[in-house]
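Sample entry (357 residues):
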Amino acid sequence: MFDRLDDLLIRFEEIMGELHEPTVANNQERFRSLMKEQSDLAPIVEAYQEYKKCKQDVEDSLAMLEEESDEEMREMLKDTLSDSRKRIGELEEELKILLLPKDPNDDKNVIVEIRAGAGGDESALFAAEIYRMYVHYAESQRWKVETASVDEIGIGGMKEVTFMVSGQGAYSRLKYESGVHRVQRVPETESGGRIHTSTITVAVMPEAEEVDVVIDEKDIRIDVMRASGNGGQCVNTTDSAVRLTHYPTGIVVYSQTEKSQLQNKAKAFALLRAKLYDIEQQKAHDAEAELRRSQVGTGDRSEKIRTYNFPQGRVTDHRINLTLYKLDKVMNGDIQEIIDACIAADQAAKLAKMNEN
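Predicted structure, serialized as tokens:
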């Protein structure tokens, strides 16, 4: 591990030197590439430099203890020694996590699909609430949310909604939301006061660049139509909505929320690229079944990941056995604690797997 850290420290210093060269400053693409690499290495370098300082502090304290006779000074040195040793242990764990292989999609924007499942209208109502939960969470992170398509029902529910979330680290955090979400509560339409269980599915896909997925135009059918539902003044007045059908996979995507046909077409192609990229990702996950088992719910869409129990005011994430009694806050977008716990569990599983090998 430390040989690799020494190499990364050398590389970091090389990057810092290159960034000050006039030729690099005039080459925007090279400059952005180096800045990205520098940004990725900075947390590792900072932790490693602190680790080296703590190791030096331990050596200095031990050397001074051998020569120091004043009891008060010896106690101070022992305290410094104890603190440094404790911090070294913490930094070793931090560095192991920082050196874990990084998901290449972590820096990407995401496309989220929410679909109502079992439970009829109640499921559609819950889908709309989960959509709003993610919108509020995205706003708290200063991310941008753009809705691509929505299939609403008259009582405020959504049979299906697709939206894009753009912002730093969006996929690295939202990827843990993929799976089946279950709600337990008494529906407003239930006169007998019985608790019903409904489900929705959430799919979180990294946005794919054109270089990630090549789409052959011969494989696509493009249909243009009038938008339907809530979409502003232009709804049902212009042929602005776009539907793409991908023949090889049978995937159909639809974008209706923009007033311009061109914008809807661009959104629809972004959705299609993400879906095709996601298929490739799933294949890769399946090919690495053992690795996938060591991760926390970032692959299997049929996995029941979370229960929202309204009578008890609790949220339970089944993958990590986490239960929180703050359902109101969670439904209002306060999901950072759950996401942090998923990240920590994922890292712990990967570390355990790495130690086995």
